[in-house]
Amino acid sequence: MARRLLWASLGLAPITIVVDYAFHVDDTVLFLLAAVSLVPLAWLIGEATEHAAQHTGPGIGGFLNATFGNAPELIIALFAVNNGLFEVVRGSLTGSVVGNLLLVLGFSMLVGPNKPIDRLSAMTSLSLVFMAVLLFLPVAIPSWDGGDPQRHSLQVASIPISVVLLLVYVFVTRTQLKRHRALHAPSSDTGGWSFRTSLAVLGITTIATAVIAEILVHSIETFAHKVHLSDFFVAAVIVAIVGNAAEHGGAVVVAHRGRVKLATEIALSSSAQVAVFLIPAVVILSWAIEPLTLAFRPVEIGVMGGATLLTASLLATAKSTSWRGATLVASYALAAFLFYEAGAR
């Protein structure tokens, strides 16, 4: 039933595009339409990467999932940079890290059975996130002096940090793929899509996502004003959840089916990918548009660091339990409240 609904809701994307270009409706309506349209598109990206992985094995399949699975967030971030919405960019990326750690992982543990998880993999992902938070500090702290967080000195300082994070991502990903390749053999199921079909779907869906993301970004300020919310809160909570729709839904569904270990892998690896790959990638790519800095607010640094430490302490015994899940979900509610209170800088 859920799959049929997702397939049917793919029609929302062309409807949103037509409404935007032909009818010029209110930006609040456009924002809501675009946000809902991104959910089935994100799901289809995840679906296509699963089928592609059947033909390529876990190595290339994992690479495709990391690349296309984060496509909505990357595209949203770059369009926001182009519109000068730097706080929206940093907020959506922060919200993605925190959302995966607390909300997705929390719900996965809450709805799934009590089972052991892969402690080594979990702690590797959490260590990457915490390392990224520490490396953000040399740029973030100077930006707290009340000056321009986009000043040239901070733009320049963000580059070497981003390069280091990307190098760490490449090294750790390569090591992790070797480990998982040894643990899991490629699927021999040939009943799915062909590799060519999978790549075609990925390409078309990514293009559609780019168009919808542009509509979303252009309407975000009006939507935030109409509902009396700050751009930062909308980005850190609403946009972050929508951009991670594939990971959010997939993790909770597989956890409900009893595959808690896979669900925790999805949530934690997605959080690590955003912290050590997506954020530095956006910073480097932004130089082709308008340089973005790693000038995260104190609340962003504090919430990301706190969420990482809390999750690590709860997973220290390598067990998934419902009370741990409830703790993480409650902590996300607190994080969302802090983002709301932070408002504009």
Proportion in helices: over 70%
User: Proportion of β residues?
Assistant: under 5%
- Tally the helices: 13
CATH class type: Mainly Alpha
What would you report as the Rg, rounded to the nearest angstrom? 19 Å
What is the terminal separation in angstroms?
44 Å
Short description:
The chain is mainly α. The protein has helices spanning 2-9, 12-23, 27-69, 71-82, 86-111, 119-140, 152-183, 195-226, 231-243, 245-256, 260-285, 298-314, 322-342; strands at residues 115-116, 319-320.
How would you portray this structure in words?
The mean pLDDT is 85. The protein has 13 helices and 2 strands. Helix 3 (27-69) crosses helix 7 (152-183) and helix 3 (27-69) crosses helix 10. The protein is an all-alpha fold. The chain is globular and about 45 Å long. The longest helix is centred in the N-terminal third of the chain and has 43 residues, at 27-69.
Features:
345 residues, 2 strands, 13 helices, two-stranded antiparallel ribbon
Write the layout of secondary structure elements.
Blueprint: H1 2-9, H2 12-23, H3 27-69, H4 71-82, H5 86-111, E1 115-116, H6 119-140, H7 152-183, H8 195-226, H9 231-243, H10 245-256, H11 260-285, H12 298-314, E2 319-320, H13 322-342
Antiparallel strand pairs: 1-2
Helix pairs in contact: 2-3, 2-8, 3-7, 3-8, 3-10, 4-5, 4-8, 5-9, 5-10, 5-11, 5-12, 5-13, 6-7, 6-11, 6-12, 7-11, 9-13, 10-11, 12-13
